[in-house]
Every structure is written in structure tokens, then in C-alpha cells.
Amino acid sequence: MSHGVAIVGAGRMGHAHASAWARNDIPVLWAVSPRRRPELTDAPDARWATSLGEALEDPAVTIVSICTPTPSHVELAIEALDAGRSVLLEKPIALTVQDALLVADAASRAPGTLMVAHVVRFFPGYASLAQRVASGSVGRVRVVRASRLSDAPVGYDWLADEKRSGGLLVDFTIHDIDQANALLGRAVAVTTVRLGGGGFGAPVATTIEYEGGGVAQLLSVSDLPPGQPFQSSLEVVGDAGVDAAAPDAGDAFAAQARYFVDCIETGVAPSRAPVAAAVEALRVALAARESARTGRRVVLPTD
What we know:
The protein has ten helices and 13 strands.
């Protein structure tokens, strides 16, 4: 099956997706950006469109990578899905659970495949840990501890606007929330404490309680000095031992793209990154944000 890609968005994620498609020998035919021609190093022959609709007029486009700020995710994803294309949608899936469910519903009715790009699921160290835990390496999982530490983002002022990015917990911590959910199941309550400062990346500590008694403890920091190397960790404690992810990101974006194409070609839903899991990660992240705002433990609805 022959594929062609349209990438919507010209920022860091747009470049990451262009590189991933190039490493899988799948051409990026269109780069969509409303105001300026994107300069995607790994897609030098991509044509420029100012709207997704223009790119969708090209029948050679079978896949749409959506790499725009989160407020546009819902409209763009539904447009592409309704046009019969498969969609690789950057996380978070949306800014509200209601909108996330609209995207999920559109995907359920569309002939194409939707996958939300929770790329950490494709980090070799994290993926290997998930496999070991599923095989019983720690017995019954009781505690998940994760950290995500970064210097302050530069040139992405929209991240500081919670109405556009969702804030640190929805845009950044959601990676670790997704991992904790995958390992522990359904969250029932969340408590988040701000550890100082009020900017986008100020430290927050989040505790998530799960059905069956499991607990996740997450530390998120994204305001460290410039040049501070990115660090992340994931540790799982069970009733039979402890295991941890190796600090290996590998070529996760390329692996994610390759897996997505496999799902398209086999007609199988992406079980490594289910749409329902993306909706659930958002649900928990929003509860964590509410806890940080109010200073209270937030109990999640069970329906």
C-alpha cells in the first residue's frame, strides 16, 4: 500500500514527524501552515498549503499528522477523519473530555485509523518495562513513580496560556499520567501540589489513586535553567519486586510512525496507544489541574 503524508503545523513536533516519516521512507507531500511556508528539513519537496482542506484535495494523501497547538486538534482531526484519511494526532487529544469524545466518536465512524501520539509508549526503555511488567516481573503493581524534568521551553509562548495548552499537567505531565494509567488501571482520585512559582513549568507533585489500591507519584518540572538536559524516569513497585525503565528514548518517533502504518495496513486498532487511553489520560490530567487550582483532592467520576 502506498502512502503520502500531510503535516499540519510547522513547529518542533512538525519537524519531529517529518523526520519520522522520512526514516520510514514515506513521503511528506504537503506541509500545512496558515501564515508562512514551513521549512521542514526532512521534507524539502513538500508542497505548501495554507489550509488542511487544500491538502486533502490531493488523493495521494492517505495520512495526516496533526502537530498544531491543542485548541485546533478537534477541528483538524475530525476534518481529516471525515475525509477518509488516517490521523496521527499529537497529544493531548483535546483540551476537554467532551471534545476528546467528539474526536473518538468521529474515529469510530471513519474508514481511516486514529492514533494519538503518546510517543513515550514507544521509547524503548518504557516499552520494554511495560512488557516485563505484563509478564510478571514485579508481580501485582502497587506503586508507580515517575519524574519528568526539563528546562523552560523557548519560543513557545502559547504553552504559558492555559486556555491554549492546558498547562503543564495537560501538556507535559500527561505523558507520565498515561504511563501510570497503563500500569495501574482506572484512576479514582487525584491530588496535586504546586511546589513553588506560578509559571508554566513550575514544579508540581501529583498523587493518583487507583481502583484496587494502587498509587502513582509523579514529579513534573519544566522551568529549569537553559541547557539543563531533559531527564525522565519511571519505576514500578510490585508485591514481588521493583523494576525501572532504562533511560533510552531510541528512535521513538520513527517507531511510532512505523507502528501506525502497520495498524493502517492491517486494519487493526492501535492497541499500543488506544484512543480510549488518550481520553482517560486527559481526564486524569484535568482532574490533577483542578486539584492544583483548588488545593483539594479531586475524586473522579466512576461512570
